[in-house]
Design goal:
The longest helix has 68 residues. The radius of gyration is 41 Å and the shape is rod-shaped. Among the domains are: 33 residues, no CATH class; 29 residues. By secondary structure, the protein is of the alpha+beta class. A hairpin with a 4-residue loop joins strand 2 and strand 3. The N and C termini lie far apart (85 Å). The protein has a three-stranded antiparallel sheet with strand order 1-2-3, with no helix packed on it. The mean pLDDT is 73.
Length: 125
């Protein structure tokens, strides 16, 4: 897309006025606003909007940091939960292995059956 800019001096009511027209390849001719110096009120509004924008950017940055921190915390919590679950599983397998070892030893006559232990699935010494 190309853009042609024309500057015309138009005389209306005895005043000389400059208008700029832009023409693009889609043949739209629209006058562009000439630069006008801003009033003090507009400048103050601009400063206020800039300060609000800075505050919003700061809040957005803080929110992003908090989100990132939360994500890191959740990731660490998931890791701890996985480790805890693995530990519980290994402890259960160890209890089962102890029970099966004692049961095998008792059936082979290596260890005598202790009273109340034949149906106990709990932790055996």
């Amino acid at each position: 897309m190309y853009l042609k800019v024309y500057n015309f001096n138009v005389q209306s009511n005895g005043l000389r006025q400059s208008q700029i027209y832009a023409e693009s390849d889609n043949t739209m001719n629209e006058p562009l606003n000439d630069y006008q110096p801003k009033t003090m009120q507009e400048q103050n509004e601009r400063k206020l909007s800039d300060s609000k924008a800075k505050k919003l950017k700061k809040k957005l940055k803080k929110a992003k940091k908090a989100k990132k921190k939360l994500r890191r915390g959740l990731k660490a919590e998931r890791k701890l939960n996985a480790e805890r679950e693995l530990r519980y599983q290994l402890e259960a397998e160890l209890k089962l292995a102890k029970y099966l070892l004692r049961l095998t030893a008792q059936t082979n006559g290596i260890l005598p059956a202790l009273p109340g232990e034949s149906h106990d699935w709990g932790d055996t010494p």
